[in-house]
Amino acid sequence: MPLSPEQQAEIDAERAAPRETLRATAPGMERHLYTAIPVLDHGFVRVVDYMGDDAAICQAARVSYGRGTKSVSNDEGLIRYLMRHWHSTPFEMCEIKLHVKLPIFVARQWIRHRTANVNEYSARYSILDREFYVPEPEHLAAQSALNHQGRGETLSGAEADRVLRILRDDAGSAYDHYAEMISTEGQQGLARELARMNLPANIYTQWYWKVDLHNLLHFLRLRADTHAQYEIRVYADAICDLVRDWVPAAYAAFEDYRLGGAQLSGKGMDCIRRMLKGEAVTQESSGMSKGEWREFQALLDGPSA
Ligand SMILES: Cc1cc2nc3c(=O)[nH]c(=O)nc-3n(C[C@H](O)[C@H](O)[C@H](O)COP(=O)(O)OP(=O)(O)OC[C@H]3O[C@@H](n4cnc5c(N)ncnc54)[C@H](O)[C@@H]3O)c2cc1C
Q1: Fewer CB within 10 Å, N- or C-terminus of the chain?
Q2: What is the DSSP code (8-state) at residue 87?
Q3: How does it assemble (predicted)?
């Protein structure tokens, strides 16, 4: 269960007591404030607070240029220009604070993004809940033969059943031992900060994560990508939906230039120019390595290939 009844009641109370503000608000984001979006089997993403909107990006950019217009189409054009030219600081004027509940092995990937402010649930102070991520059967896959960092075919039949059983049994028995060690019934009880070391990496943790829009988009570009592990990608996908509602023009530009666009090397650009002139360019004549050429071909073939 992503949220306990007490947590849900707290959130409902926040939503039931709107506050007045003179600040600019983003109508799309107001709908998400204090609601939890379920992710994986026990996780969630929840917007705790945010600052700024599409207009704040333009306002900041126009201060640096000392001029500006105010129509929506001009704002969209300006935001696309900023995104196209990697003019990033205006996007840093928007911020978001999220409450995220996620398995520890996902948190380890997430925390590599250093440009955010984080405060994590303390397992030295509090007792962790008995909640473990166990993949849905369709996400239990074999090691990929092609990609050392990825998955291949989905596991099936008796093997899939056995794997699920092992995951559940190991997590359950590790948690039983955790509970046994910290118990103070008839014994001193081991400190929580020590007892937790026996818990598996699929146990859930929680944190508050505050980041500016520029660095959030960088995170989303890496983690909403098909190369990212499924278990972090689903969080990134949920956050993409939030950002789309929060700053629609910035998200549209991001989708176009970053998610949908691609960066080409000098050799890649040269190949495209030669192809447009009718030359049959091959890997050998491209000057690219086999790996680069494969990725270049995949780019030209498009996402459906
Ligand atoms: C598909 C995938 C596979 C990965 N595989 C591995 C792996 O096998 N092993 C592994 O260790 N990691 C791996 N990573 C993590 C990756 O190397 C980055 O650490 C992670 O994506 C964070 O990226 P970042 O540093 O750009 O982000 P952030 O930390 O958010 O930083 C954003 C940007 O700020 C700048 N910046 C931040 N801090 C500094 C600094 N101290 N000095 C200079 N510039 C800074 C950089 O320009 C950086 O790009 C993987 C990531 C992905 C997406």
Answers
A1: C
A2: -
A3: Homotetramer.
Q: Distance between CA atoms of 189 and 162, rounded to whole angstroms?
A: 34
Alpha carbon dihedral 2, 6, 12, 13, in 10-degree steps, equals -150
- With a 6 Å cutoff on the Cβ, whether 215 touches ligand 1 is yes
In degrees and rounded to multiples of 5, residue 278 shows phi and psi of 100, 5
Looking at ligand 1, which residue's alpha carbon is closest to its atom 35?
A: 115
**Separation of alpha carbons 217 and 29, rounded Å:** 16
Our answer to whether residue 223 is catalytic in this structure is yes
Q: Which of 157, 184, 201 is the endpoint of a domain?
A: 201
SS3 206: strand
pLDDT at 70: 64
Of 219, 248, 254, the closest CA to residue 106 belongs to: 219
Cβ 138 vs Cβ 127: under 8 Å: no
Domain boundary among 201, 221, 248: 201
Output the pTM of the full model.
Answer: 0.92
**CB of residue 214 inside a 6 A radius of ligand 1:** no
- Residue 118 bridge partners (DSSP): 209
Helix (H, G, I), strand (E, B) or coil at 183: coil
Per the structure, the complete domain to which residue 289 belongs is given by 266-301
How far apart CA 240 and CA 138 sit, in angstroms, is 23
The residues, any chain, with a CB within 8 Å of residue 117's CB and separated by 6 or more, are 209, 210, 211
Same domain, 141 and 275: no
Closest atom of ligand 1 to CA, residue 222: 53
Mutate to test the pocket of ligand 1, among 92, 110, 112 (most ligand atoms within 8 A of CB): 112
The partner residues of 151 in beta bridges, in order of sequence, read 143
